[in-house]
Amino acid sequence: MEPTYLNGEVVLIKQTGFDYDGAIYAVDWDGQTYIKKVYREEEGLRLVSLNNHYADKFVPYDENPHIIGKIIGNFKPLEV
Question: Does the pLDDT at position 55 exceed 90?
Answer without folding.
Answer: yes
